[in-house]
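Newbie here. two chains, one complex. Structure please?
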Amino acid sequence: MRSMMTRREFLGKGLTIVAAGATAPMFLTRTALAITNPWDHPLTASAAGRPEWPTLVVVQLGGGNDGLNTVVPYAHDEYYRARPRLAVPAAKLLRLTDEVGLHPALRPLKELYDGGRVAIVQGVGYPNPNRSHFRSMEIWETADPAGTGPRTGWLGRLFDSECPDCGQLAGLTLSAQMPLAMQGTSGRVVAMDNPARFGFHPIPGAGPEEVEAFRQVVQPVAGGEPVVDFLTHTEMNALVAASEMRRITGRLGEARGAAYPADPFAQKLRVVAELIAAGAPTRVYYVSLGGFDTHATQAGRHDRLLEALGGGLGAFLADLTQRGLAEKVLVMTFSEFGRRVAENASGGTDHGTAAPMLLIGGAVVPGVHGAHPSLSDLDQGDLRYATDFRSVYATVLEQWMGVRSDAILGGRFPALDVLRPRAGAPASGG
Amino acid sequence: MPGGLEPFVPSSHDPWDETKAAHLLRRAGFGPLPREVAEAVAAGPDRAVDALFRFPPEPGPPAAFEEVRAAEARLASAADALRGGGPRVALKDHPELRALFQEAQRAHARAVPALTAWWLDRMARSPAPLQEKLVLFWHGHFTSSFGDVHDVVAMYNQNQLFRRHAAGNFAQLLDGVARDPAMLRYLNNDENRKGHPNENWARELMELFTMGIGQYTEADVKESARAWTGWTLRDPRTYEGRRTFAFTPGMHDAGEKTFLGETGPWDGTDVLRIILSRPETPRWIAGKLARFFVAPQPDPALVEALAREIAAGGYALAPALRALFRSRAFYRPEVIHAQVKSPVEFVVGAVRHLGIADPDWTRLSGALAVMGQRLFFPPTVAGWHGGPAWMTAGTVFARADTAAALIAGRLGAPQLASFSSVDAITAHLIGRPLAPSRSAALRRVTSGRPIPEALHLVMSMPEYQVA
């Protein structure tokens, strides 16, 4: 189902409904655009001096996406033997090479692939894979399998070390919860489910002067307890980010009429496209699509999830292209693990290991990269990884974001030949 | 001897006072009122703590369940009529049955906000809020989501299981959870059968529910999954059958397993016995209880002492919790005000503080979702992260907006008569002096402003988000 919404309708109700389901109360859905905000300063000169970073959109597939049924190794009989019920018939696949094909629900990605805008890195994982959702997600988010480093995210560390002048909105998560990957020590990231109604709203009957009153009340206090200090900074940062966000949403042009699917994932990507087009200073957007933990009745569920993934990304790239922005944006997908090669008794799959990552955008070296993991030489029923995920991160950091990766990743990981180096990116030390 | 469970002994320089009594009632309940704090001060620590454990009888189900039952009954009688004594009919062959099934599922989905409202109301009004606080704890520990279970009655039954064993015996609660139909469906053990194990439940049982990660091997997960084969639902084809546990020998793998170093023809009961015999298990439970009731990073010595108490009592929870709430460590200054209120604590506390007699809990449960805590829909099997993670730029404003709606009377009629001044507001809602600069700023900006605006500012302030 596709829906066409005007920008105003979208800003007014789009993501609130997403976040709260059908019960989203009206007092949380009123549009902030109608409220005068004294923090609506005109753009200041400092924004012009901001370093010109390209934009990265990280898409997290929560729960462990079944890589084998996403990029399907149809040339291998072992795949069909291991999955008598769940294997995707070769005839239905969208063939990429003489070895692998995309799941039929990913037709929009196949079109992007044919247009030379998709790089698929096969068999991505890490040594001694952990099959716990939480530990494995933590490993991907911290880029620290040993768990000996600081408990911050790799993107959080990017802002900490490489972006001292970044404002509050260097990283933006399109949900109320901040993922570990974005958490650093300098607090240059915000999480919000709807940028348009993001802000402190006066109580009915009070005027905009209450916003100024609130700002004065939440100034840092001397000798505060750690928790109160933390909350004070969170609230102050939120006010600063809200004033910045209001400047950006004030610049939004009329919608270009790009059609997005109506589901929450696609609607979040629509917001990302709007913010990029409005010139937001955000360099990393983080969007999640959950529900991939398909231990049972995987067939229909996984089809629908891939349909959401492909539909959302297809619409997003089409929208960016229409706006002339496709060259400035790179999308990277990841999941905490793939799934067991053999299906289980419930028509599902249990937690596995290595899986493909997708890179989508104008700068990719298109094609399928890396060897597909062996389907016969398994480790406890799971694939052995071929490429360390930190090599993909290093490639993105160095060749796309133009920063050195070793400090952020806690070591040197060889870059892959999956991105065309950007002009102006510093030579990497690799 | 800091950190253990040595009892707090009031003295002239360290009395049992309002600060400590309010701390106890905040942690063991939701938004205590000044009158309740005064009563707890007068009662003294022993009686104040004992009073927490007098739990009322189990409540009946929400009225909205009538509609669910009626929709299920319509489906069952239509199926019976079609069957007419013959073999069971399949939904897929009968469009009219399928329509009735979909109608029943819609009734289930509609009843979830009603169930949430029913529970929130109980949190706000129960004479023993600790029981509901523990139900909330267990909901975040033994997670199940309506999004996967699709049965509001099963979610209610699980909620009642948590209530029945709230401060009972952890071993009995665990046994109940292993047979709980909502859990069987949420973690797919209903489909775990011999030769085709599904290891979802077997893994989370150890990783999240009892021992913690790193205390077992992947082989233990696989062997445990074999032991749990056949622990399933009585009949997956009917609502009642899906709400009833059954052990099905035909699905069970009776062979020998080696689990955590012990070899035998184990089934689920044996797995639980072995898990409960491990020292990691009381330690894991103690750590989770301490993080929930004491501090995000509790003193390891306190956790160790609590674990010993739990183990010594054969997993009886009430004595361990009583010792915790009576301990000196619980009242250390760095523990008081060390927690960030969860959205549920914020909303239920705000309703109580504002004296809203008949709040619109259904809309408030929607607000909770925006704040990051949608009851009956935990975000993952690990539940809610809690602590500082509750507060992001986005949730700060969701709390402020909810406070505004409550104060403005949009969600029920507040009683604001006792809030005659800024001092009265902070005394009632914060219950301790503010830092001088915060206090000065608050007085300055509220001078000459209406009371609702001052209330809104205070309820949006950092100090009100602290428990």
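Moderator note: The first helix of chain A runs from residue 7 to 20. Chain A has a mean pLDDT of 84. Thread marked as resolved.
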